Amino acid sequence: MIGWKLFLHSVRMVQRNVPQLMRIFLVPTLIALAIAYLAIGGLLGDVGLQARGFDSDMFFSVLWRIVGLWLVIGLIGAWTVVVWHRYILLEEHPRGWLPVLHKGEVGNYILGLIKLFFIGMLFFSVLAFIGPALILSLGMVGLYLLLAAGALIAIFMFRFALVLPAAALGKPIGVSESLALTTGAFGTLFVLGVCLFGLQLVAELILFLVADAALIAMVLEIAFSVVLAILNISALTTLYGYYVEKRPI
Predict the structure, then answer these.
(1) pLDDT bracket for residue 233 (50, 70, 90)
(2) TM spans, by residue (predicted)?
(3) How far apart, in whole angstroms, are the C-alpha atoms of residue 189 and residue 202?
(4) Would you say the pTM of this structure is higher than 0.90?
(5) Residue 209: what pLDDT?
(6) Which of 154, 175, 152, 151 is nearest to 163 (CA)?
(7) Among residues 194, 212, 150, 208, which one has the least CA distance to residue 7?
(8) Residue 188, phi-psi category: left (phi > 0), alpha (psi -120 to 50), beta (remainder)
(9) Is 33 left (phi over 0), alpha (psi -120 to 50) or beta?
(10) Where in the chain are the domains?
């Protein structure tokens, strides 16, 4: 099955390029963790003060710090992902331990993410609107239908996602073009999505089994989060290479 082959290709892509992965992701990830640590420390201090008396100014201060933290982490994430796409698809090898910042491509990548976010919000808003009626009228059957519809929407979003690596390469395509390029690929994308979701479940199971060992669980959670994120990015890179550039797998 093509979906299984795409999944294996994505896994091998990560395995073959561990040194390059370290050069691309290590330092930016450490920077993001340091910023998060400092920001969370400040937030805890503000929350502790707020517990002694509610202050609306303090509330908005905390809120803006949270928003700012997510924006910074998102920017760092887009920076590294763009470099990874370009390394795999354009063979731009990383030099040193601080990746090159492709400002235009990172900006377009973030715009692509925003587009996909609103498309996803549109689909899931419709689902949230009809969901209660389905559950009330059909009971557990309605719940299963709702979960199935949510899974299908998540898989379908893969068809839009080619806009992201295209933006990273400086060869932007529209959402409609991404749909056209993946016509007839739903079954393939479904298998790929199931494989990626299966890995997520395995990671969650392992974390559940080691939950009593707090330090081990924390280290594993960070490691699993990074590995799964990179694997999902690699799957997206593989999809672009296969459907847009017509590369063999």
Answers:
(1) very high
(2) 21-44, 64-88, 109-135, 141-167, 179-203, 215-243
(3) 20
(4) no
(5) 87
(6) 175
(7) 194
(8) alpha
(9) alpha
(10) 2-243
